[in-house]
Design goal:
Layout: E1 16-20, H1 33-44, E2 48-53, H2 59-62, E3 69-71, E4 88-89, H3 99-118, H4 128-138, E5 146-151, H5 155-167, E6 171-175, H6 190-204, E7 209-212, H7 215-225, E8 229-231, E9 260-265, H8 276-284, E10 292-297, H9 303-311, E11 317-321, H10 325-334, E12 337-341, H11 354-362, E13 366-369, H12 375-382, E14 386-388, H13 392-409, H14 425-441, H15 443-448
Parallel strand pairs: 1-2, 1-5, 2-3, 5-6, 6-7, 7-8, 9-10, 9-12, 10-11, 12-13, 13-14
Antiparallel strand pairs: 4-11
Length: 449
């Protein structure tokens, strides 16, 4: 007889999971997709799931039955830096910002720095008490067998640990990124890092197991905190692949026929997710630079414009600002090549962004700039999904090669479907549910003891 699945169990005995996630889908962040996808997969497998979140999205958005989302708004409301979507060719004239707009932008930057440096563990600290109150008010007779908290923001770990302690149940920490010992782009001082590490050690004293997205990050958690750390990658959503837009046309360029379109969708950070080498490569193409166009969709904090101006290729670049997830997928589908910008440093070896799996789903060739021996770079090379390079001359040569292929055949070949093997969400989440079941049954804690 085959083993009994969660689908076949008596609903009354279905394992109960509480997912603590500040974000849910349709929030403007990839952070929303991993915890929500895990919750939806657990429901499919017969688990009884609740989600505790700050998002005001419905249960449908999270992929769980109605009435399963417990929403708690942060309080008091803290000032949030404004975000202004902007669509322009980098080379187009841009109206001078008003004095008021410049003052507002400066104030936003100051608030951001203050929040990231002074609010512990993060600017979402004002969500902790409302989340605990909302859960106490909503739980009734329902009691989780295991609590899962996905972070960042790491305030969610404090919420999960408090709930688990009050109910006497295990909890699992899901690290999409590391906290005090990771590649934190924003922590400004060694004092703040020391405070975070002390708090993290204290919170993890009660954790049953930790999960993160790559082996190097898991090893860092084991070595630093002595925790049981497992690896579950983000995985590829089984969504319908977005077809190319009917109105997708090459951007007019110089003589020579076709235009090669590259796209980057995501945030940019100067020095760590830096488009400089790519734009410098464009400058090396000479007249052929007019046949290459790069689209950036996402916050760039002026990074693209500065790099394009330095390289003298402003006419080859478009900055779209924030776009919806659906628009982001469409941009990926319409591109010839997808650009993944990462930090070219050994400290980034374990970083695998959720965007990488969106790119694989689109099956467009990937040009990755970043640490060449990292997990993400190996994923691209080993799966035949694209090219890894950081040298402008080598990137320029690759662009010319892609241009020649498109000129000759009309399109670059798609990434092989086999590149997705084993990387779908359900492939990654099956062992994740097993870990959660072990935690609920106490076997993980027994193994540690």
């Amino acid at each position: 007889m085959p083993p009994t699945t969660d689908h076949q169990r008596d609903p009354a005995s279905a394992p109960r999971l509480l997912v603590v996630s500040y974000h849910l889908p349709s929030a403007e962040t990839v952070a929303a997709s991993r915890p929500a996808a895990l919750a939806a997969f657990a429901v499919e497998q017969g688990w009884d799931v609740r989600i505790l979140t700050a998002s005001n999205q419905s249960a449908d958005a999270a992929g769980v039955p109605p009435g399963r989302v417990i929403q708690a708004a942060p309080s008091p409301q803290l000032p949030r830096p404004g975000r202004r979507a902007e669509v322009s060719r980098v080379g187009d004239p841009v109206r001078r910002a008003s004095s008021l707009a410049r003052l507002r932008a400066g104030a936003n930057r100051s608030l951001t720095r203050a929040g990231l440096e002074l609010l512990v563990p993060d600017p979402q600290v004002n969500w902790i008490r409302p989340a605990l109150r909302a859960f106490r008010a909503a739980d009734g007779d329902w009691r989780p067998d295991v609590v899962l908290a996905s972070a960042p923001p790491f305030s969610g770990f404090l919420v999960a640990a408090a709930i688990a302690r009050r109910l006497g149940v295990p909890w699992v920490a899901d690290y999409r990124d590391l906290w005090s010992v990771g590649n934190d782009y924003w922590v400004r001082s060694s004092l703040r890092r020391a405070v975070d590490e002390k708090l993290e050690r204290r919170v993890l004293r009660s954790v049953t197991a930790c999960v993160t997205v790559s082996s190097p990050l898991a090893e860092t958690l084991r070595r630093t905190f002595g925790v049981d750390a497992r690896v579950v990658m983000n995985g590829i959503d089984r969504r319908r692949v977005t077809p190319r837009s009917a109105d997708a046309r090459p951007v007019p360029g110089g003589p020579g026929g076709v235009t090669l379109t590259l796209a980057y969708t995501g945030h940019l950070y100067g020095g760590r997710r830096d488009p400089g080498p790519l734009l410098a490569a464009l400058a090396l193409l000479g007249q052929d630079a007019g046949r290459v166009h790069v689209v950036f969709a996402g916050e760039d904090n002026g990074v693209v414009r500065a790099a394009a101006d330095r390289a003298g290729v402003s006419d080859c670049v478009t900055v779209l600002g924030y776009v919806s997830p659906e628009k982001s997928w469409q941009i990926q589908a319409d591109a010839d090549v997808l650009v993944q910008l990462m930090w070219n440093d050994p400290r980034d070896a374990g970083t695998v962004t959720g965007k990488m799996f969106d790119y694989l789903q689109a099956r467009r060739p990937i040009l990755l700039l970043g640490y060449e021996d990292g997990v993400a770079a190996r994923l691209v090379r080993d799966r035949g999904a694209g090219v890894v390079s950081n040298e402008p001359a080598a990137i320029a040569a690759q662009l010319l090669e892609w241009l020649a292929v498109k000129q000759r055949t009309g399109a670059l070949p798609a990434v092989p479907a086999s590149a997705l093997d084993g990387l779908l969400r359900e492939d990654q989440f099956k062992p994740y549910l097993q870990l959660l079941r072990e935690a609920a049954d106490g076997s993980v804690r027994a193994a540690r003891d």
